[in-house]
Design brief:
three-stranded mixed β-sheet, 7 helices, 12% strand, elongated
C-alpha cells in the first residue's frame, strides 16, 4: 500500500514504534547515532515545511491553508513543527462548536474556561453540569473532538459548576409614613 493511502494514525504509530525500537538498541553508539539521524531529518523536513508554509501564506487567501489544516496527515506535520495555521484556541473552540448540537440535544452545553499548556479546562452547563453521565459525555464527545482538532492537548478537565446560592428572602418593615 502506498504511503499516501495509509491512515495517518497508522503512520504515526509506526514512527513511534520504530523510535521505541531505536531507544532499545543495546549498542549506545548505534543508538545515539540513529537518534541523531532521526533528529536531523526532523529538523531538515521541519525547515523545508516552514518555507513551504511561508510561501503559501504569502500567496494564499486562506483557502490553501485551511485545506492543509483539514488534512489529518498534513495537520499532524504542521503541529509537530509548530506551524499549524489555525491557533490552538480557535481549533479547540471549533471542536466544541462541533459537539455543541449533541450537547444541546441533551439539555447541556460546554464553555471553554482555560487552555494551560497541554491542559484544557471546561465548564459543563445545563443538564451536563451535574448529571452522572456528564463525565461520559465529556470523554466520548468533547474529548474526542478536542484531541482530533488539537492532538497536542494531553488532558481535558471538566470543572463542575458551583451551586447557585440560595435566594434569601427578607421581610423589611416599611418606615413610618412610607406606603
Amino acid at each position: 500500500m502506498a504511503t499516501a493511502e495509509r491512515d495517518p494514525g497508522d503512520l504515526v504509530g509506526d514512527v513511534e514504534r520504530l523510535l521505541d525500537d531505536l531507544d532499545r538498541l543495546v549498542d549506545p553508539v548505534a543508538r545515539a547515532t540513529a537518534i541523531e539521524v532521526v533528529q536531523s531529518l526532523l529538523e531538515l523536513y521541519g525547515a523545508g515545511l516552514e518555507r513551504i508554509v511561508e510561501e503559501v501564506a504569502a500567496r494564499d487567501d486562506g483557502a490553501i491553508a485551511a485545506a492543509l489544516a483539514d488534512d489529518d496527515l498534513v495537520s499532524h506535520l504542521l503541529l509537530l513543527h509548530g506551524l499549524h495555521p489555525v491557533p490552538l484556541e480557535d481549533r479547540i473552540r471549533e471542536a466544541l462548536a462541533s459537539v455543541r448540537p449533541y450537547l444541546e440535544s441533551h439539555g447541556g452545553n460546554v464553555e471553554l474556561l482555560e487552555i494551560d499548556g497541554p491542559v484544557v479546562r471546561l465548564a459543563m452547563q445545563g443538564s451536563c453540569g451535574g448529571c452522572p453521565s456528564s463525565s461520559v459525555t465529556l470523554k466520548l464527545a468533547i474529548e474526542n473532538a478536542i484531541h482530533k482538532a488539537a492532538p497536542e492537548i494531553e488532558e481535558v478537565i471538566a470543572v463542575q459548576p458551583a451551586e447557585p446560592p440560595l435566594l434569601q428572602i427578607q421581610y423589611l418593615e416599611c418606615p413610618a409614613g412610607a406606603a
